[in-house]
Write a structure and sequence with these properties.
CATH class: Alpha Beta
Number of helices: 11
Radius of gyration: 18 Å
Order of helices and strands: EHEHHEEHEHEHEEHEHEHHH
Mean pLDDT: 96
Number of strands: 10
Distance between the termini: 38 Å
CATH superfamily: Histone deacetylase domain
Helix content: 40-55%
Number of domains: 1
Structural class: alpha/beta
Shape: globular
Largest sheet: 8 strands, parallel
Strand order of the largest sheet: 2-1-5-10-9-6-7-8
Low-confidence stretches: none
Length: 350
């Protein structure tokens, strides 16, 4: 099986060399995949998404505000808050980034596997706010695109970034047709994603947050996925699985606080692929989020792509680091005993 790698032609126009989220990130992934995975990767370029699709997640006022801010800025860079920079091309690049995510959905619905390498990332962007290096929520728009363009009803989003996907959570917090799962370092920016945030109204039970204590590594994460994430997917029964593929939970990441390895990430991906194979005919795609160690980002992307292609796991040259294998025990116990979706699973199996 090959994997469709979706790039965007203009991502370098949104970059700041002294900022961790810069053009070198996507370039490092593409270079590694071309060198080590060309036998099972097909590279295509994304088109920009039509702006009307943004309004399936974002407010019309926010979209207009961001476009106006970019077109009227002076100087090479402008800033939203203390951490999120703009260039004159940010709006156009962000449209391409959303376009890459939606192209990944198109590929999966054709029976392919896909990895969208759009940037800037998206999972911190709320319906009305840019933050955390993000402007438009790529994966949230892709989920709506799957529903409205392809007729998919139930979409599961699994966020493996070390930072909580607060924007994605906000977009679907009351929606029973989108399951949002986030395993993230805690305490860590944006300081959301607590255990008791489980959804509201019709969406009660379709938000599943898994805060991981600092220094959690391969063993702790894998136990969480085996005992919490996969059972939740089986309870929800998605027709499509989308991965918010952030690789900043790797031990080498400069702004993360966890200790996953590339092979550890691959084990998590394997669990998601296996669930997708059983639940939705293998319909699964990955959409790039964070990851700020270039060697780790490239290694994790290669490992994930190999597993999506059902190829052997490449050697993990970066290796592992000591971690706390039982750091998530209390989190697992709380969720299995209290989360509405997991309670539904227990009731069904009793």
């Amino acid at each position: 099986m090959s994997v469709t790698i979706i790039t965007i032609p203009n991502h370098g126009a949104h970059s700041h060399t002294r900022h961790p989220e810069n053009a070198a990130r996507a370039d490092a992934i593409v270079t590694t995949l071309r060198e080590s995975a060309s036998a099972y990767c097909r590279f295509v370029q994304a088109n920009p998404i039509a702006p009307d699709w943004l309004k399936t997640v974002h407010t019309e006022q926010y979209v207009a505000w961001l476009h106006q801010k970019v077109t009227t800025m002076t100087g090479q860079h402008s800033w939203i808050g203390e951490d999120t920079y703009l260039t004159e091309s940010t709006y156009d690049v962000a449209l391409h980034s959303v376009g890459a995510a939606c192209a990944a959905v198109d590929a999966v619905m054709r029976g392919e596997r896909a990895f969208a390498l759009g940037r800037p990332p998206g999972h911190h962007a709320t319906p009305s706010t840019a933050m955390g290096f993000c402007f438009f929520n790529n994966i949230a728009v892709a989920a709506r695109y799957a529903q409205q363009h392809h007729g998919v009803t139930r979409v599961a989003i699994v966020d493996i970034d070390v930072h909580h996907g607060n924007g994605t959570q906000d977009a679907f917090y009351t929606d029973k047709h989108v399951l949002f799962v986030s395993s993230h370092g805690s305490p860590l920016y944006p300081f959301s994603g607590t255990l008791n945030q489980t959804g509201k109204g019709a969406g009660l039970g379709t938000t599943l947050n898994i805060p991981m204590p600092a220094q959690s590594g391969d063993a702790a994460f894998l136990r969480v996925y085996q005992q919490v994430v996969v059972p939740a997917l089986y309870a929800f029964k998605p027709e499509l699985v989308l991965i918010s593929a952030g690789f900043d939970a790797h031990w080498d990441d400069p702004i993360g606080n966890c200790r996953l390895s590339a092979s550890g990430y691959a084990a998590l991906i394997d669990s998601l692929i296996d669930a997708a194979n059983h639940l939705c005919d293998g319909r699964i795609a990955a959409i790039l989020e964070g990851g700020y160690s270039l060697p780790a980002l490239a290694a994790c992307s290669l490992a994930m792509t190999a597993r999506l292609a059902n190829r052997p796991l490449p050697e993990d040259e970066l290796g592992t680091r000591p971690s706390n294998p039982h750091g998530a025990d209390q989190t697992i116990a709380w969720l299995t005993n209290n989360h509405p979706l997991l309670q539904h699973t227990k009731g069904a199996s009793a």
